[in-house]
Amino acid sequence: MGDFPSHLVTAPARPRSGRFKATVIGVFVFGLCLLLAGGTAAPALTSPAFLISGVREIPSPPQGTSWAPSPRTADGLRMVASTDGQEFQLHTAGGDRTFLPGVDLGDTTPGHLPGKGAISAAQYRAWFAAMGWLGLRVVRIYEIHPPAFYEQLAAWNQANPDRPLYLVQGVRLPDETYVKKRNLFDKPFTDAFRRELRAAAQAVTGELTRDATFGQVGGAWTTDVTPWLAGWIIGREIDPGAAAASDRRNASVPRFTGRYFRNTPKSTPTERWLAARMNDLAGYVARHGVSQPIAFVNWPTTDPLRHPQEPLPQEDLLPIDANHVLPTADWPAGTFASYHAYPFYPDFLRHEPDLLDYEYEGHADPYAGYLADLRRHHATMPTLITEFGVPSSIGSAHNAPLGRSQGDHSEQAAMRINADLLRMIKDQGLGGGFVFSWTDEWHRYTWNTAGRQDWTRRQLWHDPLTNEQYFGLLAMDADGAPDAADQQLLDSDGWPARKVTARVDEEYLHLEAELADSAPGSMMVMFDVLPAVTGTPMIGSGDRRPDAVFALNLIGHDGQAYLRSQLDPVKLDFSVPASKRGSAPAGWNVFELVVNRAITVPRTGVRLPVELQNAGRLIHGSWDPEDDEADSRALWELDGNHLAVRVPWAMLGFADPSAHRVGVPKNGKLTTQVSPGVTVSFTASGTDQVVGQVRWSNWNRPYYSERLKQGAANLRDAALVATGGG
């Protein structure tokens, strides 16, 4: 086999910091969260603390005027929130609040799929306390949560009357059958959604009892949280192709005029269906003598603006306009425009001249321009960005202007960007910003890694290459089985290493090595995950045919991950010309992710090339969350003769490490083979050293611990500024 690139073998020495630099770091003790919440830790919570980087002492809760609800009454309906022109007004004892910093909360934890009711009461208690510390004033949920959510929310708010956490309740579509049938007006689909709207109205008032079904929690809801219910957001992002077909099919459906919501004359069939569902919900809610602002989920793909430079037609196919769905005089709380809007997608953010020329804080900022366009369009109602943020993942799925890509951010960088975006949303005159999301969600997938994974067991392991799993403010760190001891792989007088230990968890394979004196300037850490394939290229001076390699420059502190060509998963995504791939020896590929396929812009004929991320660039440094200078993307660190390496399972070719399954692409499709374990070898200066084989037991239950991510204090500062100091 040929040599790996020379810059990984020789490089000038430069200063490096120690492995764990001594720092003074504030620790927001988990017990303090529970003390504030009035509870004790449950066994499911394995973390002893929320670690918050950069804080020198345990901070006091945000101070300021009271946020206690001070509802108004109109037409016999009580409102804790309402809309007035472009203002969203939360009525509190300290006055009307017109900007709401919030967070989106899913309904699951590692090892579980949504709809299983996996979050414990103790977790809710601790999470609400941490949200309050961060200055977040709203928690938005997408569907009915288990009764414990509403019980603990009410308990937290009653214990903290001047600093309550307000709720925006969501109601998910029942399924995706409208996409298959190309018909939003399909009666079984519509009837199922109406039932869920009614159930949600009963859940928030404490009047719901139902059995659990697939994807739907059951129980008895007995807690009324309407004193803190600030609004509703129904549905999810609408599929543009299915909705466009539905509009053609239902073109004769008349404009809707209900008691609480109506359509304007220019409304489309999709907007008429949405108005009818919002009217349904308002009717269920009004029976309890309350009114809250109601909106539907929208996103840039179906926004009402035109984007002539958007490369993908489906991203500018169908406009859905909240201006065409309006409340009547009988719904005094009003409505608002709700958008899931991120700075990295769709691509019109990279191509529209007006957006590229928009100035914010002295420089061009297309995302700020897009926010301004949304507010300008919705001139008679508030606009809220109810999902925004960037993930703290190694892998990315899309490039973006100003470095706000869909991944490849450290925790500190992601939190800094989220804080900047929250301030921007406030500065552009919008009514609120809800960061996505509260926790890292292991079950999530993304387009450029989903084809590489066994989707039936994705929730059992945590993949740093899948950006969708790392949007959380709360890290859900893999811990590994508590009874799994470190494995001694090597204890000898050998070279280049004398001692090597290994351990595995649900996120990484970890190696700790003590190198011999006179350590080499570069070294390859090699991994065999499947039996050798005859005829495949060898590496080093022996008969070594590894499947993955970490090539480390121990002097220059850089490195590169490679995967054997037979296991390279890029071929499962899109066709990528060899000329576009990173430089690698014959039979090998740089570990890369496709972040944009090659496309032709329909309106201009301009050909845009494929874009790839070198996700296998091996960052050197500490990943200890207690180290102020840590980089959560770092995968190796050399401190003296001590070498620490952690390898994401995907970089070893695994499609499911919990079942030892390695992905083997065949004819464009994923097949899997069972790995007997990972054999580790070192190669340096022509010397091969077999270290040993790492083994582990299959797992069906993951173990994890929780902590606030590094840099979370940046978001806290932005939230407090946005609300005038608390």
TrEMBL record:
Q: What protein does this entry describe? A: Uncharacterized protein
What highest taxon heads this organism's lineage? Bacteria
